[in-house]
Design brief:
The longest helix has 12 residues. This protein is mainly alpha-helical. Strands 1-2 form a two-stranded parallel ribbon. It has one domain: Arc Repressor Mutant, subunit A, CATH 1.10.10. Helix 2 crosses helix 3. 39% of the residues lie in helices and 4% in strands. The chain binds a DNA duplex through helix 2, helix 3 and strand 2. InterPro entries: ATL_DNA_repair, MethylDNA_cys_MeTrfase_DNA-bd, MethylDNA_cys_MeTrfase_DNAb, WH-like_DNA-bd_sf. Pfam families: DNA_binding_1.
Length: 109
DNA sequence: GCTTTGACTGCGG
DNA sequence: ACCGCAGCCAAAG
């Protein structure tokens, strides 16, 4: 109740990302919205980029509003590999079909 | 407590 | 549809 460690923006983001099911995607903006700060999409990416090394959070299931991977270099291919491993198909446009893979909280949470 | 930093987003051209 | 720019705001220094 009075413990702020459970009420911070970052804690909410971690909780939300942890709820994204295998084989599904969501966007930075959507996570921000669910966390109660619809304009803090950048912050979501910032938090995911600073995750501790042993984190179990499925950070790879968060992409940008176009359904594209926002990382670059080796990180890009790492995220791509994990998503493909979960059965997600990358379109020729270099994006994932959000209409098909987008996770919605009511869909299972 | 002010300044800098971004794994973003929306809008206009 | 693609590209560039300005706004956004929680965290870290």
């Amino acid at each position: 109740m009075s413990d702020p460690s459970q009420d911070t923006f970052s804690q909410r983001v971690y909780h939300i990302v942890a709820a994204i099911p295998y084989g599904r995607l969501t966007t930075y903006g959507e996570v921000a919205r669910l966390a109660g700060a619809p304009r803090a999409a950048r912050q979501v990416g910032g938090l995911l980029s600073h995750l501790p090394e042993g984190s179990k959070l499925p950070w790879h299931r968060v992409v940008n509003r176009h359904g594209a991977i926002s990382l670059s270099g080796e990180d890009f291919y790492r995220q791509l590999s994990v998503l493909q491993g979960e059965g997600l198909l990358l379109q020729d446009s270099g994006r994932f079909d959000l209409a098909r893979y987008r996770w919605r909280p009511e869909d299972g949470g």
